[in-house]
Amino acid sequence: MASLLAETRAIAAKDLLLEFRSRTAFLSALVFTALVLAIFNFARDPTAVSATDLAPSVLWITFSFAGVLGLNRAFSLEKENRAIDGLLLSPASRTALYLGKTVANLVFVGAVEAIALPLFALFFNVPLLDVLGPLVLVIALATVGFVAVGTLMSSMAVNTKFGEMLLLVLVLPFLITPVSTAAEMTAKLFAHRPFAEWAPWLKLLGAYDITFVVLCTLVFEFTLEE
Amino acid sequence: MTATQSAERALKRGGILMAVGLFLVAGVYVRALLFTPEEATQGLAQKIFYIHAPSAWVALYLAYGVVGIFSVLYLFLKDPRLDLLASSSAEVGTVFTTVVLITGPIWGKTIWGAWWTWDARLTATLFLYFVYLAYLVLRSAVDEPGRRARYSAVLGILGALLVPFIHMTVYLFRTLHPMPVVLQPGRPRVPGPMLVTILYAFFAFTVFYFGLLARRYAWARLKAERAQREADGGDASR
Amino acid sequence: MPPANGGFMVAAYVAAAVIYLAYTAWLYWRSRDR
User: Fold this and answer.
1) What are phi and psi for residue B43, nearest 5 degrees?
2) pLDDT for B121-172, tens place per residue?
3) First to last CA, chain B
4) N-to-C CA span, chain A
5) What percent of chain B has pLDDT above 70?
6) Residue boundaries of the structural domains of chain A
């Protein structure tokens, strides 16, 4: 178990180190976020639609795209460096390989979300602070669910003819549960609804995360070459 | 008997089962349109049910169930025929799902007044459709049979586990989320002759599915045999 | 008096028939070519 953690950390660190040397992907995710926020703000009629009604959807559209950009970035890194061959020769176990990559992707997407969220609060004038704790929990859980599946799909898409476009097609059906439950919970949080009202969604998202993290970890080895 | 001959026999048998299934489905058309009474409050459009519901059963449960189960079996047993069966079921299932997604909104328009209302079952079907399509696109993106089989199996399993979550997500939205009050066609009470029709329809479409599956699978096996022969540099004895 | 929606029924029945027949025919003929 201890070696699994150590291997996971090493792989995650390697991935993240590569990212810091090429910050373009991170930058594109942020620019995209600002663009989405600006468009939604200018496109709506403030007398007809209140910011609070739109806010949860806008937030989650932004986070979804940031997430997909993050997965694409991880994918391109692998392709460019043919890093996967080096990793397979290493003594790290397959599980550590999967977990390490997932953690690295989580950190990347999480970083984008951490910057997007205050930007979003600014542009949309939504009071976040009093629900910040639960909101961060919701964001974290949804991101885990999304990134876990995305990392697995990424490792398959990289070995196919269609590459990144295939990644999007593969991941999209699996976004529905995390993103829609998170958006619903976000809406309830912004409206300061009691916990009992959004608890069922939280349970569903939690169940989804556990199921798919475990499942993806188990089947990851089948996406690697012998 | 060589593997090729066996596959050719299977192809013929599949063709027969397919024809039988098609004939039975034609029987559904005849029975539903000519020998089943019109429903009192919903009008003739209610008869769409006799096509829509059995197609949904095949698409969502039967066809995708086969995909899921044989995906798991393939990962454990590595027999390429298991992969061929799963992918055949995926292709046939996609056809049935297409019919569900076309007949559903048409029927919905008459019941709800709108082509699409994010109804629980139709929405779940739509997202399963995305999984089916992803499965087919994935297969077309990989040329090497071994890798194609492995990747398809991975997606097949993940998709199978996704289905209950989609159902639960949509269920939560329906029960907890304020939605426009609509008439639910759901499961209409089915008196006498209608019950016979719908039961017969389920039977007919199930046979039709197996016929299509058998033919598709036999064809897949034949193609795999041929590819194997070419890879081996041609086989003189047939 | 039930609503007059026979047109929808026809549309749905025809659409389903076209799809199923088209796929069956395609499958039958393509698989014969080997």
Assistant:
1) 85, -170
2) 888 899 999 999 999 999 999 999 999 999 999 999 999 999 889 888 888 8
3) 9
4) 24
5) 91
6) 2-223
Query: Among the listed ranges A66-70, A190-194, B81-85, B88-92, which one has the minimum average pLDDT value?
Result: A66-70
From the list B179, B213, B235, the residue with the least C-alpha distance to B58 is B213
User: Residue B182's pLDDT band (boundaries 50, 70, 90)?
Assistant: very low
Inter-chain CB proximity C2 and B98 less than 8 Å: no
Whole-angstrom distance, CA of residue B218 vs CA of residue C32: 11
Contacts C27 to B, Cβ<8 Å: 18, 212, 215-216, 219
Q: Do A160 and B158 touch (CB under 8 A)?
A: no
**pLDDT confidence of B238, banded at 50, 70, 90?**
very low
Domain range summary for chain B, segments of one domain joined by +: 3-37+45-226
B218 touching C, CB under 8 A?
yes
CA A133 to mean position of chain CA atoms: 18
DSSP three-state, residue B39: strand
Name every chain B residue with its beta carbon within 8 A of the beta carbon of A152. 154, 158
CB B222 within 8 A of CB B36: no
A173 close to B (CB below 8 A): yes
Q: What Rg value do the Cα atoms of chain C yield, rounded? A: 16
Q: Among the listed ranges A6-15, A129-138, B201-210, C23-32, which one has the minimum average pLDDT value?
A: A6-15
Residue A155's identity, in one-letter code, is S
| Residues near B27 by beta carbon (within 8 Å), at least 6 away in sequence | B200, B204
Within 10 Å of residue A27's Cβ, how many Cβ atoms? 11
User: How distant, in Å, are the alpha carbons of A59, A183, B231 from that of A131?
Assistant: 15, 14, 63
Interface confidence, given as ipTM, is: 0.93
Kindly report the pTM of this predicted structure.
Answer: 0.87
